[in-house]
Design brief:
Layout lengths: L1 H9 L4 H21 L4 H20 L3 H21 L1 H11 L10 H21 L3 E5 L6 H4 L3 E6 L2 H7 L10 E5 L2 E7 L15 H12 L3 E5 L6 E5 L2 E3 L4 H12 L2 H15 L5 H8 L1
Parallel strand pairs: 1-3
Antiparallel strand pairs: 1-5, 2-4, 3-4, 5-6, 6-7
Length: about 280
Amino acid sequence: MDQLRDLAADLRIEPSALLDIFLTAVLIYLVLRLIQGTRAVRLAIGAAIVYAVYVLALELDLRLLSGILQTGAVVGLVALVVVFQPELRRGLDRIGRVPIFPVAAAGGHQRVAGLLATSAAKLSRRRTGALIIIERDTGLGDMAETGVLVHADLSAELLASLFAPGYPLHDGAVLVQGDEIVAAGVMLPLAERDGSLEDYGTRHRAALGITEQTDAVAIVVSEESGAVSLAVGADITRNVDEDELRQRLFELLAPADVASRARRSLRDRRAGRPDDTTAGGAAR
C-alpha cells in the first residue's frame, strides 16, 4: 500500500482513482468472462462500434449524426437489456447464489452419485435416450413447473420407467433435487452460445443450455449411440463410463472438503497405501 501511495503521489493520482480504475478493470473482466462463448460477444462488439462512431461524430461536430445516435441510445439501452437478458440473468444468479439444498453427509452424495451412474449405464446399454438434471445451489423450481411434478425417491427403476420409449414424459428432462426426483417431462432452454452445435442433438443442446444459465449438472444418454455425456458449466464431456461418471458426480455434488478427502483416499488405495480410516483401525 505504501508503494501504491508513493506511485500515486509521483503521478499526482489520488489513491481513490487507482482503486476506481482497478475495480472498473475487474468489472470489465468479469463481464467479458460472463459473455465469453455466447452470442453476446458479437452484440457487444457491435455496440462498441456504434459508440465509437458516436464519439467520432462528436469530435468532428457532425450534429445530425450525433443527434440521431443520441436519440437511438435511449431505445438502444432498452433493447440491450432485452437482448442480453440471458447473460444478465446468469450474472445476477452467480452474484446472488447461495446454497439452498446442502447435503452434509458424504454418504448421501455417494448414494446419489452411485444411483445416477448406475441408471445412466443401464439406459446406455438399452440405448434409451435420457436427460437428467441435478440441482445444486441454483434453485430450478421454475423449470420443474414446466413438467409433471413427481416428488418421489430417487431410484434406478423409476428413472428407467420415466424414460421408457413411448412413455409420455420420455422426451423431457427429469429434475433431481438431493435424493428426490422432483419432476419429469421438464422443458429446458437450448444452448445459445456461439460455436458449432451441429453434432449435438436436442438433449445435448438442452443440457448445455441449462448448465449455461445455472450451476446444475446434466447427464445425457444418447438414443442413437447409447453414449453417456456429462455437462456442467456450459461444457460437455462425452463418452463417460460408469466409474468415471460416479466419481465426477460425487466431486460435483459433495462439498469441496469432502470431495478432496475422497480423491485423496482413492489415490492412496490405488497406490497401495492405507487411508486414514484403515490406518486408524489397524492402530486400534
